[in-house]
Amino acid sequence: MARDYVGRKPKNNKKHPRGKKPAPKRRFPLGALVLLLIAIIAFVTLLYKINNSATKRAPLPTAVVPAASKPVTLKPLPKQPKVPAYIEELENKQVKVKVPKQKESTHQYQMQCASFRNRDDADKLKAQIAFTGLSSQVRRSEGKNGVWYRVVLGPYKTRRSADSDRHLLQRNGINGCQLWYWNWK
């Protein structure tokens, strides 16, 4: 048999509406508070006693030294040395270094930025490179795959100068330039 609990009204008695007793009110643990206060007071007195015992130490015994039979004579201190001569010499010293002349490199560097099948595309990239302030060349090359138009910068004598130009191109949005070298002697 089904019962309807929704419309049911609680009975009017002094108990909780659901029939359970209300939870007792919790009291503050007075015993724990007393123990905590005793522990704090004991700790403070201990610190106070340690502090007083450290400040009231017994004076150290003094040793009695018998008088010496012979008076001790002290030697006079040596004269203060002058500024060493090498310091004055180093202030005015000039150093000459012989640097051997470096051999001229037998390599030249070249940078290729792109290769195209169409000459017009290569000329467009050459114009973009010209706007950065660098000069480039379009070289035609034939290979197994047909005709290619390469956009090339250089030749450069040092790798540092080639890298400098490559970084300039990267800052202007032209990426993918590759550096290569060949032995020209």
From TrEMBL:
Gene3D superfamilies: Sporulation related repeat
Stretches assigned to the SPOR domain: 103-182
Keywords for the protein's UniProt record, in alphabetical order: Cell cycle, Cell division, Membrane, Transmembrane, Transmembrane helix
Biological process annotations from GO: cell division
Transmembrane domains' residue ranges: 28-48
Coiled-coil regions listed: none
One GO MF term attached to the UniProt entry: peptidoglycan binding
Biased composition (Basic residues): 8-25
Entry-linked SUPFAM superfamilies: Sporulation related repeat (SSF110997)
Region annotation Disordered: where it falls in the sequence: 1-25
Pfam families membership: SPOR
Superkingdom as given in the UniProt entry: Bacteria
Cross-referenced InterPro entries: Cell_div_SPOR-domain (IPR052521), SPOR-like_dom (IPR007730), SPOR-like_sf (IPR036680)
PROSITE patterns (alphabetical): SPOR
Full protein name: Cell division protein FtsN
Organism of derivation: Celerinatantimonas diazotrophica
